[in-house]
Amino acid sequence: VQLVESGGGSVQAGGSLTLSCAISGQKYNRYCLGWFRQFPGKEREGLAFITYDGTPTYADSVKGRFTIAKDNDTNTLQLQMVNLEPEDSAMYYCAAQAHYAPRVVCFDLIYGYYGPGTQVTVFS
After folding, report:
1. Do the beta carbons of residue 36 and residue 45 sit within 8 Å?
2. Taking the mean position of all CA atoms in its chain, how far away is CA 68?
3. Inter-CA distances, 107 with 14, 71, 77, 101, Å
4. Mean pLDDT for the chain overall
5. What's the CA dihedral at 103, 109, 115, 119 to 10 degrees?
6. Which residues lie across from 51 on neighbouring strands?
């Protein structure tokens, strides 16, 4: 599975950005897709996830501000971010992981595939 993020950049506080992730080589019927971010010197933080059949879940820190969506026709994953704050400045990564169980909690999976990341900088 190959993942490539795009759409990062610099934005003023209160502004919006939409990140995209191009997905290729994904052949599994059951999988989770997600967005993570990483602050310098910190571990990656899970932000938003979506199941293969389209059910989203969000971390409390971004609930109501970030929206995850996937487009099966174009094999892309998006993260719409509004009301951005300087504290949202980080490297953002998309991730994918297949699973065999009928139902999983996407937040709890260990993800084996990540993109190279895209930088988001929010200035005040």
Report:
1. yes
2. 7
3. 27, 20, 16, 15
4. 96
5. 110
6. 32
